[in-house]
């Protein structure tokens, strides 16, 4: 979205006065970086410079550019900014390169991206075995992979995440990202107190980290502390408006609070950042149905787009929107989720239960949740945040699952 936007549009989106642009060109072992500071309101160039360095001197180049930008901010905008110590997180340029690729792939928010990130962070550790941030990244990558894994692989994946987070903390006990990753492992293992303790310690060390705010907000939402969850979700978006993860957390928190119109706006922000990410389309379709003020066709369109991006059957997903709209109007018109849809959601039991429930198949919804409960599926942590399951909240089988997990119905 932002590549074709003007500096003024970008500045409005980010709420900033100036934009730093740059380009990198590598020739052999040499790299040339050109940096430009643009006045966002008027669009003219305030400052520019060019830097030539050897590739293996990248850390010195980062420091030089940072100091030059700070000087430009002071001279052109009258802003005084202190340059913090620029201690590199590793002294090995190859390790740093693999680490950056790991972060890039992790931010893709796909199964393939998570697998690539695991490989990238593992290679970074291979170049520098004392690289604490790479171990923390590896823990995050395993956590992301657990969201896409079949149930049989989830315990092994979470254990790998735990081992990586603990390795990072042995190397750097104050590393907030590693502390938060360990909190997420405990969250997915239904250790609510342990997870919150880790998140709080992480935020004490790095209060401005939007990723930590996201994770903590989702824990608080699951525990029924919606007001606190919303505060952390909003801070995460404020700190990084270009993070799809921050908007996604806000969507989930607002959905749990019944703020469907606001959650829809958050979903639309995600799609501005990445219109080809499947999950927001699925959540938007469900939100359109929850909101109840839009034609069912809009939910069907969103479901179809999700199916197209996932390689599924668009017609089958559209039929769910039609059946859900019919059941919402008349509870005697219950139907079943098409097998093609159920097959695509089989590894995501809470989402599958939601689809069964919105078309009126209560028994199938409860069966999906009971199976997930027997297998200890981490998706169950989100149960109290799914208003689509409201008709099940008082059912004895549903309440038994929540009680065993130490959760309560909304």
Major β-sheet strand ordering: 1-2-3
Count of β-strands: 3
Q: Give the radius of gyration.
A: 23 Å
User: Which percent bin holds the helix content?
Assistant: 55-70%
User: Kindly state the mean pLDDT as a whole number?
Assistant: 88
Q: Tell me the structural class.
A: mainly alpha
Strand content: 5-15%
Number of helices: 19
Distance between the termini: 37 Å
Explain how this protein is built.
The model has no long low-confidence stretch (mean pLDDT 88). A hairpin with a 5-residue loop joins β2 (30-39) and β3 (45-54). The chain has helices at 7-14, 58-77, 93-106, 111-127, 132-146, 154-171, 176-188, 192-205, 210-222, 226-239, 244-256, 260-273, 278-291, 296-310, 314-329, 339-344, 349-358, 362-375, 396-405, and strands spanning 18-27, 30-39, 45-54. It has a three-stranded antiparallel beta sheet. The radius of gyration is 23 Å and the shape is globular. It is built from 19 helices and three strands. With 410 residues, it is mostly helical.
How would you describe this structure in keywords?
three-stranded antiparallel β-sheet; 3 strands; mainly alpha; 410 residues; single chain
Could you give a quick summary of the protein structure above?
The chain has 410 residues and is mostly helical. It contains 19 helices and 3 strands.
């Amino acid at each position: 979205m932002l590549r074709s936007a003007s500096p003024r549009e970008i500045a409005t989106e980010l709420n900033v006065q100036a934009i730093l642009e740059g380009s990198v060109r590598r020739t052999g072992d040499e790299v040339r970086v050109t940096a430009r500071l643009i006045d966002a309101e008027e669009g003219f160039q305030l400052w520019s410079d060019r830097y030539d360095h050897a590739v293996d001197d990248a850390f010195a180049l980062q420091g030089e550019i940072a100091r030059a930008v700070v000087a430009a901010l002071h001279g052109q905008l009258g802003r005084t900014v202190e340059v913090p110590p620029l201690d590199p997180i590793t002294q090995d340029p190859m390790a740093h390169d693999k680490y950056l690729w790991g972060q890039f792939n992790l931010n893709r928010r796909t199964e393939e991206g998570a697998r690539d990130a695991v490989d990238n962070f593992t290679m970074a550790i291979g170049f520098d075995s004392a690289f604490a941030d790479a171990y923390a990244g590896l823990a995050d990558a395993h956590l992301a992979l657990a969201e896409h894994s079949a149930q049989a692989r989830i315990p092994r994946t979470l254990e790998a995440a735990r081992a990586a987070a603990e390795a990072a903390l042995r190397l750097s006990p104050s590393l907030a990202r590693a502390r938060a990753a360990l909190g997420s492992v405990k969250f997915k293992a239904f250790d609510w107190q342990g997870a919150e303790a880790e998140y709080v310690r992480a935020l004490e060390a790095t209060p401005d980290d939007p990723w930590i705010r996201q994770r903590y907000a989702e824990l608080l939402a699951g525990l029924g502390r919606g007001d606190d969850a919303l505060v952390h979700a909003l801070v995460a978006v404020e700190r990084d408006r270009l993070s799809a993860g921050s908007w996604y957390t806000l969507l989930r928190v607002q959905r749990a609070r019944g703020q469907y119109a606001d959650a829809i706006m958050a979903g639309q922000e995600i799609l501005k950042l990445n219109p080809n990410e499947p999950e927001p389309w699925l959540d938007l379709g469900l939100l359109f149905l929850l909101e109840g003020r839009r034609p069912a066709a809009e939910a069907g369109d969103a479901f179809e787009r999700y199916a197209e991006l996932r390689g599924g059957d668009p017609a089958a997903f559209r039929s769910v929107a039609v059946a859900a709209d019919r059941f919402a109007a008349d509870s005697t018109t219950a139907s079943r989720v098409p097998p093609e849809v159920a097959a695509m959601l089989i590894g995501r039991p809470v989402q599958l239960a939601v689809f069964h429930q919105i078309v009126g198949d209560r028994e199938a919804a409860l069966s999906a949740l009971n199976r997930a409960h027997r297998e200890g599926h981490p998706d169950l942590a989100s149960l109290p945040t799914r208003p689509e399951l409201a008709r099940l909240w008082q059912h004895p089988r549903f309440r038994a699952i929540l009680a065993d997990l130490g959760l309560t119905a909304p």
